[in-house]
Write a sequence for this structure.
């Protein structure tokens, strides 16, 4: 009895979630055949690195857009915002000073 055949594509994904938005980022990458040659492993790692770089660019672009939207929405009762601090801590939970 044979097991399930692996698909020819795998997925690299990241998910963003907050109270105001949710976004999924996904890229298809080839699977590494088993057994595999050095050339196949090199090609797989190259494709993986490329997909990770693209995914990171998409996430960074999305987060930059979210920061701009939050900034444009105003600071409300917080008054003046320390933009450098906000950028460093964006998406992190922290204690207010």
């Amino acid at each position: 009895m044979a097991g399930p055949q692996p698909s020819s594509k795998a997925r690299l994904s990241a998910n963003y979630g907050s109270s105001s938005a949710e976004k999924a980022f996904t890229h298809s990458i080839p699977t590494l055949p088993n057994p595999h040659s050095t050339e196949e492993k090199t090609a797989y790692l190259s494709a993986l690195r490329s997909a990770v770089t693209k995914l990171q660019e998409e996430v960074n672009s999305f987060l930059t857009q979210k920061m701009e939207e939050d900034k444009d929405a105003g600071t409300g009762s917080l008054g003046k915002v320390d933009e450098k601090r906000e950028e460093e801590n964006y998406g992190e939970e922290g204690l207010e000073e």
Observations:
- Residues 1-7 have pLDDT under 50 and may be disordered.
- The beta strands are 9-17, 22-30.
- The radius of gyration is 20 Å.
